[in-house]
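Action item from last week, closing it out:
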Amino acid sequence: MEYYDIHNHILPGVDDGSQSLEESMAMIDIAYREGTRNLVLTPHYMRGRNKYTREELRGRFVDFQDKVRDKYPDIKLYLGNEILYEEGVEEDLRAGLIQTMNDTKYVLVEFNIRISYNQIYQAVRKLVGARYRPIIAHVERYRSLFKHVDRIEELIGMEAALQMNISSVYGGLLDDDARWCKKLVKEGYISFFGTDAHDLESRAPYIQDYLGWIRKKCGEEAIEEMFVTNPEKMLRNEYLE
């Protein structure tokens, strides 16, 4: 199976992720060894605080894509943004200032971890109303969603999709956060996984150490859905089932 990583910060020199081409290529080496063959590079977008314009970002992406292709012809790279949601994001999207996921209507959106549920709800409502398809980044981080299955279900009912960082499934029975993450995965609420890789040490693009638990508890079909089928549909701008 050729896995997808739809959330990472491997593109060099554009945010708080990789700071050099050498670091980025080393991260690609890890991803390749882990079985990842498709990556959506998602540098942060923060209104008025970016190191790049969208045109500059796309230029850097093409340059990096060429270098990766020279070493790994079977790796496919795509471009997106991880958007910090704040007032005005919809206007920036309409103005073409933000990179959607592979130029589709899907947008990867993050929030302050202490955000209220009402604020998340209103943000999703506005994005959907503007005809975008929000993917909530690392959904496990938001305390207003923690142990609130009803809120999770309400957001999915509004056509939001949920992405979890794969390392979040690590933890034993006494780890309350890990138990919550495992519950979300086992009950089918998670549409996508990503590594959220930023570097070569504490936040590297490893997946195999965590896939074992998902395979054991959810089966190979669930892995294929979250790591292959759903990403492929997203990149083609198709609705998820």
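Closing note: The chain is about 40% helix and 15% strand.
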